[in-house]
Amino acid sequence: MAQLNTFKSLQYSFLDENTADLPGGVDPHVIYTAPAGYTAIVLNAQAANVKSPNADVTVTLKLDKGGAENVLIKELIIPPNDAANLATGKLVLQSGDKLIGFIENGEGPNGGALNLTLSFLETLDA
User: From CA 98, how far away is CA 61, in angstroms rounded?
Assistant: First the structure.
């Protein structure tokens, strides 16, 4: 039986915007995709720049229905050895919606300069 509400966290290392897709067409910039039959509520998105130089982060939300991609954060500069909360409020993702992110200044295609901890609640759709 599927659980009604589940709190989860994940870790993600932002990659440079020019990083190519992975085999099978998998987009390496997708941070999280809301699973089928669930709605996710993002509670916290803490990003830490653990290396130099400055990291310019962009985060978008791509809606599954309609395919629109909305910019949530554009080129936010996070200095070395600093952190920022990328979610100032709750963010709702319906089944199939994707949270996408990349850096424009960082460690190149291997990423690792900017780490994200994402906390969210997945709730079973009625």
Answer: 6
Q: Could you give the CA distance from residue 14 to residue 121 in angstroms, rounded to a whole number?
A: 22
Query: Quick one: which of 89, 92, 87, 85 has its CA closest to 121?
Result: 92
Largest CA-CA distance found in the chain, in angstroms, rounded = 47
> In terms of Cα–Cα distance, which of 120, 112, 121, 122 is closest to 47?
112
Digitized pLDDT (tens) for each residue of the chain, 126 residues in all: 678 899 999 999 988 888 888 888 788 899 999 999 999 999 999 999 988 688 899 999 999 987 778 999 999 999 999 999 999 899 999 999 999 999 886 554 445 589 999 999 999 997
pTM of the model: 0.88
Give CA separation, 124 vs 15, 32, 49, 99, in Å. 31, 17, 34, 19
Helices and strands in the chain: count of H runs, count of E runs: 0, 9
